[in-house]
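Per your request, structure below.
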């Protein structure tokens, strides 16, 4: 079931969430949601988190931004820009990034920065990403801390790391890598990506440079620690599992983000599993879906019980408007991975597209399950609202629509739907309370 808050904490957190989102520019960064990519990142992070004493439940969230950056906002989330992720050349480099950010969590640095920001009267948050992290954790207090400012100077102040924090995070991260059998010199290779940027003007630097002090002394310290304590781990080859998930994660991400022609050139003449997957995506994006489905058949012959390849085939069918086949394929993916909210959401979407009495009823049940597992997906919220409306539950439809528009920062529209939900739902019901929270937040943010 979703996290429940006390009414006062929920209203306060929701007000902070909306207030923060109001200050974001229209071109605010978007979050990339994909069950397969998120699974790959979890697999790569698992040995690091284990050595850091952190739970595997920490979420690694990809931001669709070509700049180079990674950061933490609370104890439950690591954010990494797609630009940085795509610059990683091997699993150890990506694991070095994750280890450094995990060290900030394990060492409590995010809490220190938030406290310092509050004491200084400066902003501790920077909009949707941080507010969503606090809201999804069910923490009204955290949302208050994040709501103290939204200007760019406040963003830098919150995310700024002291040199002492960086040194501690570097050493902790290197220790995690060594203990996990991961080549620690990968961290030096990652830092080399940023070395040339230190001489650039602030406006031309990637965000990581503006928030993480990168000096020659820091790079030398990393190299000395890695060489001095790395022992036999230096130069260690990545495990087969790490190499596989790295290739699969970055391969899928690049196939969806770069020009399809570029992907097709890169995989020409190659018939390994990852190349077949990337070619199928590129062919589909190039409006050659029949060829894409042929490649998907080959891929599923290699891994017939893979829920993510089954989901990808379902997505191609759905976007090719073969809704019946898509619904069947999504159902197969759900059977293989019944706890994946994004696969559930895709299944519900395909059932809605069939638009029969039975499919709409099934869609509502599936989408309610997806909502229970991940309530912060605007596309799923849109589909859930449609399912409620088709089932005659207009109050619930309005409540969910209000949540969706709140997440999208369209506050006036969110307030309209929240008022409608309050007028239709039983007083004190969950949807009624959530709509009150959204309305209070929207009104306080205007």
């Amino acid at each position: 079931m979703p996290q429940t808050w006390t009414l006062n904490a929920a209203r306060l957190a929701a007000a902070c969430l909306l207030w923060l989102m109001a200050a974001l520019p229209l071109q605010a960064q978007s979050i990339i949601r994909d069950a397969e990519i998120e699974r790959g990142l979890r697999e790569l992070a698992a040995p690091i988190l284990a050595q850091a004493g952190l739970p595997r439940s920490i979420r690694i969230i990809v931001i669709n931004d070509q700049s180079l950056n990674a950061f933490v906002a609370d104890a439950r989330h690591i954010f990494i820009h797609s630009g940085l992720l795509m610059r990683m050349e091997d699993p150890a480099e990506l694991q070095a990034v994750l280890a450094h950010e995990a060290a900030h969590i394990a060492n409590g640095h995010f809490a220190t920065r938030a406290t310092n920001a509050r004491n200084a009267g400066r902003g501790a948050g920077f909009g949707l990403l941080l507010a969503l992290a606090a809201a999804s954790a069910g923490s009204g207090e955290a949302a208050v801390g994040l709501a103290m400012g939204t200007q760019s100077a406040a963003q830098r102040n919150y995310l700024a790391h002291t040199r002492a924090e960086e040194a501690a995070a570097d050493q902790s991260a290197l220790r995690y890598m060594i203990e996990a059998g991961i080549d620690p010199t990968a961290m030096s290779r990652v830092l080399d990506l940023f070395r040339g940027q230190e001489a650039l003007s602030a406006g031309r630097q990637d965000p990581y440079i503006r928030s993480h002090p990168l000096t020659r002394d820091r790079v030398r310290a990393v190299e000395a620690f890695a060489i001095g304590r790395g022992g036999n781990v230096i130069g260690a080859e990545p495990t087969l599992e790490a190499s596989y998930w790295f290739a699969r994660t970055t391969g899928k991400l690049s196939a969806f983000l770069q020009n399809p022609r570029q992907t097709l050139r890169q995989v020409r003449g190659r018939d390994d599993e990852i190349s077949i997957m990337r070619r199928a995506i590129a062919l589909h994006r190039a409006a050659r879906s029949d060829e894409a489905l042929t490649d998907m058949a080959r891929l599923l012959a290699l891994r017939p019980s893979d829920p993510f390849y089954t989901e990808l085939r379902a997505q191609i069918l759905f976007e090719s408007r073969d809704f019946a086949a898509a619904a069947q394929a999504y159902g197969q993916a759900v059977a293989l991975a019944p706890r994946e909210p994004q696969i559930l959401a895709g299944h519900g979407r395909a059932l809605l597209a069939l638009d029969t009495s039975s499919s709409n009823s099934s869609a509502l049940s599936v989408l309610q399950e997806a909502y229970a597992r991940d309530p912060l997906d605007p596309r799923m919220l849109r589909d859930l609202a449609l399912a409620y409306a088709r089932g005659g539950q207009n109050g619930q439809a309005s409540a969910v629509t209000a949540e969706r528009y709140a997440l999208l920062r369209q506050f006036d529209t969110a307030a309209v739907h929240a008022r409608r939900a309050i007028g239709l739902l039983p007083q004190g019901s969950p949807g009624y309370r959530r709509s009150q929270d959204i309305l209070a937040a929207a009104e306080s943010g205007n």
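The longest strand covers residues 59-64.

Regards,
D.
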